[in-house]
Amino acid sequence: MKEKIYFLITCLILSYSTQAQLYGGIEIGSKGIKMTVLDVENLKRNTYDVKEFWTENVGIAAGIGIDGALLKEDIDKAGTVVANNYKRMLTEYRIEDKNIFIVASSGVGLANNTNDLVVKIKEVTNKKIEIISSSLEAKLLLRGCIPPKNYLNSVIVDIGGGNAKGGYAKEINGSSVFFPISCDLGTVTLTELINKKCKQKTIFEFSENLFDYLPTMRESFKKMYTSRPESQEKSNVYISGGAAWAFYTLTTGIKAEENFTQVQYDDILAIRTIAENNYQRFVTAAESNVEMQKVLKTYQQKSLIAAFNLLETSLEVIPNVQNKKIFFAKQGQIAWLVSYVFDNAKGVKQIN
Q1: Mean per-residue pLDDT for 245-266?
Q2: Residue limits of the Ppx/GppA phosphatase N-terminal domain (predicted)?
């Protein structure tokens, strides 16, 4: 009888230990550093639960818009944040070292001195980070941000801190083939670019200079879409990234419950106007709204104006955008990182 009890206990312990395993992902992005802890039940079936997700608002891409390089102080700051959270994953969450992945986003990858960042992270964690290309990041985004049933009639557009990227899938010979699109304009890089044009550094002057820059922005996004003409023909547009999150949160005042929420193009136009002309409205509302407070702690007014102009322009240049369905992808902030962790945990070779 005792042997049977011991056998059952052993089976339960083994069953529990094989049911789930923790994985950690750290993404060094242009606007901040994101940490994700995944409770993975089955790698083959991609079944998991996001056990924990948090962000530290450490901007690292400010220098890219100035002279194309990451600033040394920003690299050092990123190294400290990454080291602290890497140790937290090892000790507090007891994640195995081999199950922790550290990457830098494609926006950070635009810098001409990314090797300095790679060396710093290697120094503080003994791990070599990978700088993700915009095409791979967009491919992972598509997999994580669009429902499989809508893969072939949708395009994903992600406005990040360092760049904008996205893409769509097309069926060729019975397989879905991904086609990336990208534009070297993001919230941080655009904010720094416009700031360089300002002498008095006021909001009014910033908005004026940004308005003058709009024709260039439109051309940049037009080129992004016309490089892959089929991207303009999709009936669904999924938006993700910090700009989309800020738009949704400040418009609704709540945290998105559904993974995909349909939004209206006119609301995107309206939120941009408020950011430029009535920013105090956000400040007042945020006093009693925790979710809105998170946005305003992440974005100062100039960055918010830049973010919403990018979001609006990226949609405005799509032909017949008023007749398309636009969805906010709630999981956009972690979707590509989750896909990356899964592929690498399985030993899948990444192809840029």
Answers
A1: 93
A2: 57-196
